[in-house]
Write a structure and sequence with these properties.
Largest sheet: 7 strands, mixed
Structural class: alpha/beta
Mean pLDDT: 91
Helix content: 40-55%
Number of helices: 11
Order of helices and strands: EEEHEHEEHEEHHHEHEHHHH
Strand content: 15-25%
CATH architecture of the largest domain: Alpha-Beta Complex
CATH class of the largest domain: Alpha Beta
Number of domains: 2
Distance between the termini: 31 Å
CATH topology of the largest domain: 2-enoyl-CoA Hydratase, Chain A, domain 1
Low-confidence stretches: none
Number of strands: 10
Length: 264
């Protein structure tokens, strides 16, 4: 049974090990005012620490995923500060706090500028057919601060990233799929069921393996290829040194075989 854990501008419901987090300012296209920026890290940290949450789906209340930093608040001067209205901790990398629980982005509409950065911070993305992506930082007259110039080239390549950033043009869902920005594009009504199923697939994998795998990806992201190979080899040796239960390995092997038969 679904249990509401948070309400307000960031809403979270938990069911079967999956938390669905919804940015909830639909009339403002889920724009990131100070309130929602403060709520995102708080809600995600709470879910990451929960023993009954193994995967998180992040989406927006229709019709948008996230329109970026609230420009009305920014333009009025109400945002304050010295960083384009960003109120997240200055030593925090990106819009999310450090976390171990995988986050799947379910992009239901436009993901623009800061909203695109929120999407890029997810571990991977599923898009509705209505999804649109754009980087309008330069058009607005601000510079990104949540990792866009790092994460967007990783997703689509440096030339496509530059094109998006210096034109501000929108990219539709099929193009985002072709470019590698998203993993899947589905019918709008199927977006959350599809994302929930992917999250349920994550829940079905032992938690320690999921978390160590994502940690290794993070550790190898900022280093040379040679150093990445070294890190992975070290992690593998240390993991095996912890010991393996032969009966447990066999049980998992059989479960993988049985599951594979349903997917072929």
């Amino acid at each position: 049974m679904s249990e509401l854990r948070h309400d307000g501008v960031v809403r979270a419901e938990v069911d079967g090990g999956v938390a669905v987090v919804t940015l909830n300012r639909p009339d403002q296209r889920n724009a990131l005012n100070r309130e929602i920026q403060a709520a995102i890290p708080r809600v995600l940290a709470d879910l990451d620490a929960a023993d009954d949450v193994d995967a998180i789906v992040l989406t927006g209340a229709d019709p948008a995923f996230c329109a970026g930093v609230d420009l009305k608040e920014l333009g009025s001067g109400a945002a304050g500060g010295d960083s384009a209205g960003l109120v997240l901790p200055k030593d925090q990398r990106g819009p999310f706090p450090p976390h171990r629980t995988p986050i799947i982005g379910a992009v239901n509409g436009v993901a623009i500028t800061g909203g695109l950065e929120v999407a890029l911070a997810c571990d991977f993305l599923v898009a509705s057919e209505r999804a649109r992506f754009a980087d309008t930082h330069a058009r607005v007259g601000v510079m990104p601060g949540w990792g866009l110039t790092v994460l967007l080239p990783q997703a689509v390549g440096i030339r496509r990233a530059r094109e998006m950033s210096i034109t501000g043009n929108f990219v539709d869902a099929p193009t985002a799929l072709a470019w590698g920005l998203v993993n899947h594009v589905v019918a709008h009504d199927e977006l959350l069921p599809f994302a929930r199923q992917l999250a349920a697939d994550v829940v079905g994998v032992p938690r320690d393996g999921v978390r160590r795998m994502l940690q290794t990806y993070d550790e190898t992201a900022d280093v040379t290829l040679a150093e990445g190979w070294r890190i992975e080899a070290t992690v593998s040796r240390e993991w095996l040194a912890g010991g393996l239960d032969a009966a447990e390995v066999e049980s998992r092997r059989q479960a993988i075989v049985d599951r594979g038969r349903t997917q072929l």
